[in-house]
What we know:
mainly alpha
Amino acid sequence: MSRPARSLAVFSVYVILLGLALLVIPDVWLPLYGLPKAADVWVRVVGMLLVLLAFYYVQAARHEMMHFIRWTVYTRASIILFLGAFVLLGLAEPPVLLVGMIDLLGAAWTWLELRRVQD
């Protein structure tokens, strides 16, 4: 497995774990990020979507799909922008930025590995 693919595969483990946590035990994790406990199904839907998204990440890594791996850098890096906007608009508390920082760091790792392969 190439280094860029490995970085995405490792990141997919994080996405799977976060998705499962939101799907199965959301009320343990949501307060840590300054979010209210799950009052309806939407948090679990997000968890399900994260698990399904991680499936694509795993498959892209397994099959060395460099175009897809590169695309994930852009989308994962943009999450911090969305979460930052949510915080600025008062829709979320600042601890939610921790999720965005993890995504940004994962995107940066993949970006660096992609650059190493190109050089």
